[in-house]
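Hi there,

I know you've been waiting on this one. I reran it after we fixed the sequence typo, so this is the corrected version. Both the input and the resulting structure follow.
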Amino acid sequence: MAVYVDNERISWRGRQWCHLVADTLAELHTFAAALGLRRAWFQESASHPHYDVTVAVRERALRMGALPADKTLLVACCKKLRTEFLALRTQSPPSLTGPNSGSSTWTASSFNAQP
């Protein structure tokens, strides 16, 4: 099991952003919490589940043990996460609702996980 972060550096609202993924949702959420990311920032509605992180948070994630990911690895992980997410949602819909379910939308200005 591992956590991965790409080096995409997508410019948005004055910052550069990367993607944080993992082999499993549990591992992804645990690692994201250790980074100081809010569960509500989980991008469950994106084409593939992930967390967006700034380049500074990416560097901190790497120091904490995340592995660098190229696009091929990132897409493979995202597909596995999407399959797991959909399976969990089908099995137990009530557990995916509520304030920490990841259903909230956020903007870069609400991002407070700084190094």
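Quick highlight: Residues 1-78 form one domain.

Best,
R. S.
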